[in-house]
Protein 1
Amino acid sequence: NTIISYDIFQNDNIDNKSLHILFAVATHYTEEFRKKGGIPYHLAVAFENHKYVCHATNDPVHHAEANVLKKLNYLETKHDIKWNKLKIIVVRMKLEENTIKFVLSKPCVNCCKLLKCSRVKNISWSTSSGSFKTCRVCDFESTQVSRKFRDSFHL
């Protein structure tokens, strides 16, 4: 059996309810993740006032952050989304010795631009140590370059 590393629960930046929901969504993707052979897998989960709203994963064209923003825009056509109360948590899952761990998943420069154009209030991401960092989207800066663009992108 594959389990999610419990290191994620030692965190002051994200409330326990949101962590448990994040854990449940990540667990749901475990089998799909294993079928990919342990390739890093990104997941973005949106919360409004600590309540789950939606989630998205990366695909060959878009990052998880872009996909979750797309879902939020769609949901807004059917529900009252309070963008100024939204928080997005982004994680990258990595398979190590039959355990899935959260590793560095700071949004890239392109996703940073998308997030700043949205009305999302806060962004959190997993770090290389398995903990989380959180900040207001308006204060968020990134120098992360997606693997897809590394050869052609210069800061």
Protein 2
Amino acid sequence: FAPDTDYRLIETVEERLDDPLSARLGGEDGETWICQRGLRLSRDGDEPLALIESYLPPDHARLAAAIATRKPPFYQFLEEQTGERVTDMVQEVQAHLMPPRVAEMLHLPPGAPALRILRRYETASGTLIASFNWHPGGDRFIYRTRLKQTGADPG
């Protein structure tokens, strides 16, 4: 979680997973998961930078109230509470048009371009937590990666 940003919880709700969502989260069709929605904000708190939708599987629902008082990343807290260690983090980045509920929370028009980043934290027993991070397109989002070449000098 970027140290120069803030986080504000908006809501905690139960959501029944449909087949496409359950496949993304690592759950089962028809299961009820806890979804916590919050905004990543600029340090001054005025500009929403992203909407974060964090999904807790049914076996970790009891920890939702404790997570509601924390800032992301939540997986470290969940590791401590459950004794389960994250072995894999799966990340998917997709271009999307913002659904109305996302656009409203980010103060943008429905259908605005966005990147939806799914991060699923997995343990030996399944998904510990999964989150969708909705980032507005344009100049509010830059993804930067530096790749280092290692090995023998070809020259």
Protein 3
Amino acid sequence: EVIDREVVNSCLHEAYFDVANPESLVRSFLASLSSCPIDFRKEAVRNVCCIGGTVEFIPNFERKFLKALADAFNGPSNESSHAFRSLRPLLDEKEGCLGIVNPLPFSPGIFAWTAASVFGSTGTLPIDQTVHKQAFLSSQSNDSARSKEAVRGFL
């Protein structure tokens, strides 16, 4: 069965670009930005990177994202435009400093892996939040042995 293209577009719009939806990407972006310290906000919006497979899946994702942000402030007055009004100067189309890096120098689908690799190489993770290969393999073999014993005991 084929799903109607309009239904898919409507669902995508609601999930990603509808500022009235508290679970949407645009609303989450605005909420995250408003939770940043005021002095950091300007720098945070200068080089926004849209990453992940969704960016590749939805044509013109970055343009739709920018339009949704503009609509949040330039459309009819609503709860969202009031809740995030302090962000308007940063995100204004003409005078704001919002910058979306597009196109990225590599596929948006692999950017998260690249960023995670760079972060992991910095050595800033606390030791209790890391898993070394030997420890992982050891735990897997112990879990496997326990599972086999449990199965033998059950049979």
